[in-house]
């Protein structure tokens, strides 16, 4: 891609992708962004940007750069296969993880509704490798229990969740579940179900890893903010303010969400 906008490239077969996504809870799509797309994101982040609306992930409602990237048909076409015709983008985040930094195992509170209807796309942007990528538990979207709930039942705090817990708890729910440490690089994408158990530990010796997280839902799901004072069980979602959602396919539903104007 040339110029300032980032333009995702196409996954190979949507049918294959959908089957894998539904059974495993995630799907990797290599080369979703080119090297120049990744650079365009880094350049954009290095300049003053419009303030996100209502919360830190409200960038698609305020920033044309992210509205354009998150609405790109190469992302939206597979999302339509996974979520149906009407799709909204409710969250955009840029994630920096320094060497040794841990993002504890969790389910995303906004999107872990047991009924599903949420897909997140994580794309490595800088210093992405197996050592710094998002880690996932395959099939955990079907457990019907968030990792926060399981940890609470076991008396384990969020920061104390260790690999031994993950292996033990996942095996209880589904012996076919596996810890996935994806072999991904810059520009590669991971589509994952909003209920999936995931976490990150950047074990690279050097290089802050940067990734972009684009979070979508079927337009008839209520998207609510998390209570930033409480990440543990029981999970809390706020009635107000509502996160702005950008319609990227079909129609939004104002009875469910605050529909944003395209910036
Ligand atoms: O930075 C990462 O790779 C993990 C991000 C994540 O899990 C999240 O934002 O929910």
Radius of gyration: 17 Å
Bound molecules: 2-oxoglutaric acid
* Helix segment tally: 6
The unreliable regions are: none
Order of helices and strands: HEHHHEEEEHHEEEEEEEE
Distance between the termini: 22 Å
CATH topology: Jelly Rolls
Question: How many distinct domains?
Answer: 1
Major sheet description: 7 strands, mixed
Mean pLDDT comes to: 94
- What's the number of extended β-strand segments? 13
Helicity, as a percent range: 10-25%
Structural class: alpha+beta
Approximate shape:
globular
> Quick one: CATH class?
Mainly Beta
Identify the CATH architecture: Sandwich
Strand content: 25-35%
Tell me the layout of helices and strands.
Blueprint: H1 14-24, E1 26-29, H2 35-45, H3 64-70, H4 73-83, E2 87-97, E3 102-106, E4 118-126, E5 134-137, H5 147-154, H6 163-173, E6 179-180, E7 189-193, E8 198-201, E9 209-218, E10 225-226, E11 237-238, E12 244-249, E13 258-259
Parallel strand pairs: 12-13
Antiparallel strand pairs: 1-7, 2-9, 2-12, 3-8, 4-7, 4-9, 5-6, 5-8, 10-11
Summarize the structure.
By secondary structure, this protein is α+β, with helices and mostly antiparallel strands.
Structure, described:
With 263 residues, this protein is α+β, with helices and mostly antiparallel strands. It has a single domain (17-249), classed as Jelly Rolls (Sandwich), CATH 2.60.120. The chain is built from six helices and 13 strands. The protein has helices at residues 14-24, 35-45, 64-70, 73-83, 147-154, 163-173, and strands spanning 26-29, 87-97, 102-106, 118-126, 134-137, 179-180, 189-193, 198-201, 209-218, 225-226, 237-238, 244-249, 258-259. Helix 1 (14-24) packs across helix 4. The longest helix is centred in the N-terminal third of the chain and has 11 residues, at 14-24. 44% of the residues are buried. Bound molecules: 2-oxoglutaric acid (AKG).
